[in-house]
Amino acid sequence: MPTRTPAAPPQARTPASGLSARAVADLLCHARSAHALLGPGLIVTLPRRVRDARTHEDEDTLAARLLVVWSDTVRAHVEAGTYDVSLSGGVDSAALCAMAARHAPGKVRAWTMDVHFADATERSNAQRMAQVTGAELVDVRIPDAVLPDLFERAVIANQAVILNARAVASFAFYLEAQRQGAGPIILSGAGADEVLRGTPGAMTSAKARVDEDRALAVEVLRLGAPAVVEALREASRGGARDQAQAMDAGRHNPREGRAPAMGASNHGAPAAVDNLRAPFPGGVRDHEEAPETGRGAVDNPGTPSSRAPGGDQKSETRTEPPTGETRPAPSEVSDCDQPASPRVGLQPVDNLRGVSERVNSDHAPPSPPVDNLGALLAAMPPPWDLTPGDGPASEELRYAEWVLRELILPPELRGARAQGLTVRTPYLDAGFAEAALALPESLLLRDGFGKWLFRHAVRSLVPDEVRLARKTPRYGHTALSSPVRTRWLELYRAWLSPARLEPLQVIDPQAVSKLLERYTRLSPEDALAGGMDRLLMRLVSLAMLQAHTEAPPSCPES
User: Fold this and answer.
1) Which range is least confidently modeled, 25-29, 59-63, 444-448?
2) pLDDT digits over 473-509, tens only?
3) Is 193 a domain residue?
4) Contact, 55 vs 443, CB < 8 A?
5) For position 211, which CATH number holds?
6) Which domain holds residue 468?
7) What is the pTM of this model?
């Protein structure tokens, strides 16, 4: 099916409805911690915990206790009748599949994604897990040609901008899985990295990517637009204020929110949140409650029950050592995954994985002048430090909530919901999140690798070749590197026309046109390709969201 060219709106019209100029400016500049363009967005609240610096218990005891919490968490889902599991082949989804199969032998179906940028080792590991657990393996094939054609549907379903083709592939995955009989509920391993420190270098990489995004935004924004100036001024003031408040809170109560030992009663813990309002025991709630309602812990989206939106967007970076060098592995074996890698030499990668060589300065003065927007953007704090006053004091939690809300959960939860599926994320259930966030960092990071204690805990469930496999880099899947590059570029040009960009009010269409032409001349391996593609996909997404919010409502009788 050829890429559809959108019908252009009248050239000079100022939209009476649609996205606000301020929301667009905030999003492109990372000027606020949440970029909900249509409605309140996802609500993600992790348990307020500060990790203990050390533990007096041995590693095996803590690992056994963590395994019990994991078993109880997954069993609750299985006993509610959920037997479908999304299986990528990484340790998180592998442990989820294995535990589900332990509690429901012979009933589990494992769903995998066959798309050209899927890692071959992880796909092989998914097949291995299906064999050892007795799960029925269902391989969902996603042709490259469908991704540009599904981009618009994915944007509208996610109610958010899309940064890479992985989010579209997730939408296509749930679409096809539903056609093949998945659901109505499917379990996902999303969130494990965020509560178990799965990617030690993720925050550093994210800061670098934000720097890169902000520098490119200066090229396409109308810098004199009042919405742009005000967004930056307010964010700079608020960021400095929030940081000062967080530091002050830490000085006065450094042990605030300390987690109880695993297995202890969590009387004050936030309730587990269900993911899309399907019935689930335990008084669960979800992520799209109105802001004034009580917030649950974490787990998945939703508005009140009548409203209806890799996944693969996880933040991971890694580099291979130079030829002839090896990297030390954790003490149990000589090979496992997720090393913390230096910024030098990293290629731009998917989601939170693009890197920049620009200097990052995180702390903005209280009220900087607005005469140089590029310098102002470079001085702004990262978006997770622009949280409201009631946000968590821990930077780890601020970052985790931001990445879950902005990048990981929308394509997982909303993309599935558009197909009539409910996705639940056991790693974000309150009980497991409480236990994971209480673990000392020293037991999660070992020799530069993340999630160590959890890997150790699931050694009876997951074969070593899967449990300790190195995590492969998930390089940015850009239009330049796609097998259907021409189709992607046609989509970009159709939606980045002046007629489509003018209603956004703060975008300079001529600057976007020049950026797009520069982009088309790059090689797929160019270090600039990832950042430019993220910006172009954001702009295309914004144009699509604007077009849909401007569209007149359908006739009730139709």
Assistant:
1) 444-448
2) 555 568 898 999 999 999 999 999 999 999 999 999 9
3) yes
4) yes
5) 3.40.50.620
6) 21-42+54-242+380-550
7) 0.76
